[in-house]
Amino acid sequence: MPAERDHVDGVMAQITGVRADDRVSKALSFRLLRAARLLETELRREFDAFGVGLWEVELLGALKRAGPPYRLSAGQLLDSMRLTSGGVTKRVAGLERKGWVRRDIDPDDRRQILVSLTDEGLARAHEVFGMKTQTEARLLGVLSRAEQDRMNDDLRALLLDWEGPDGRA
């Protein structure tokens, strides 16, 4: 056991009647949840400084990852973000009001709506994702590259088991 104890060690010291193997998985679960919450809290704080919310970053990211011309159909956004059509519509409308995306009718299928990053939206995406990368590096930099690689491998194995290779289980 490491010399320094964290909050989870204190919580686990208070939990009784749990088998040793179950204690290990319970402590790991607590730590994963706490780490995810702390990372999300810090990212939200950083995003607030840019006037952008976490849900907006997710949509900007989906469009940016699509590559030039930074456009996806509403259905593709729905699949990428795993939201309802109403949820995607609400988020697109919010970014459209900010001037970061635009909606166009697909010239090849007039029943489809295409959502594209505007020049302003692309510039904002570059700023936000640059800051996000710096924040992640700062927060996770306490771990060596080898430790980060090992943690990535371990978490990948969990996610593959839980949700499959396409993340849709």
TrEMBL record:
This is MarR family transcriptional regulator. GO terms for biological process: response to stress. Residues 25-160 form the HTH marR-type domain. Keywords: DNA-binding. It holds the Pfam family MarR_2. It comes from the Bacteria. Transmembrane segments: none annotated. GO terms for molecular function: DNA binding; DNA-binding transcription factor activity. It comes from Amycolatopsis echigonensis.
